[in-house]
Amino acid sequence: MTIDDLNELTPQAAHDEFLKCCGSTAWARAMAQARPFGKVEELFIKAGEVSTRLKTEDWLEAFHAHPRIGEKKATKSQTQQEQSWSAQEQSAMRAASADMIAHLANRNREYEARFGFIFIVCATGKSPGEMLAILNRRIDNDPQTELQVAAEEQRKITRLRLEKLFA
């Protein structure tokens, strides 16, 4: 897709493309309404600006669009493209041992019970051990701090997915 292709989409089609990059409908709606963009970099800047205005419920909606680390399906329905992107982002998990997968799954459940949302990390380029270490560091955060950290990880994922959209 080019920036011109995106600009020419109907508002609903643009919304749907943006929703693949960030599962927040408020974010996708705002991005679709912000068109046209002159350059991709302009779009990246706007994406960051829009994300600063998201509310807690918007972030939680975005988090639901991701599978848990080590899993293939999100709690929210995903498109084929989103499933493919998630698989690429978590590709290091394919080489994880059964023990590592089980340990991550247990810690994921503890994290989710503590914070009420799944553990979000920009997994691209991270080994299972690195992701577990990050989860172990973050699980002791207070809920407000952790929401902010998770939102920042979502912003990183969104940026990577926007780049993939234009690749």
Annotation keywords:
167 residues, mainly alpha, UraD-like, 9 helices
Write the SSE topology:
Blueprint: H1 3-8, H2 11-21, H3 25-34, H4 40-51, H5 56-63, H6 80-89, H7 98-115, H8 128-138, H9 143-165
Helix pairs in contact: 2-3, 2-9, 3-4, 4-9, 5-9, 7-8
What does this entry show, briefly?
With 167 residues, the chain is mostly helical. It has helices at 3-8, 11-21, 25-34, 40-51, 56-63, 80-89, 98-115, 128-138, 143-165. It has one domain (3-165): Oxo-4-hydroxy-4-carboxy-5-ureidoimidazoline decarboxylase (UraD-like), CATH 1.10.3330.
Radius of gyration: 16 Å
Tell me the CATH architecture: Orthogonal Bundle
CATH class: Mainly Alpha
Strand content: under 5%
| Low-pLDDT sequence parts | none
Distance between the termini: 7 Å
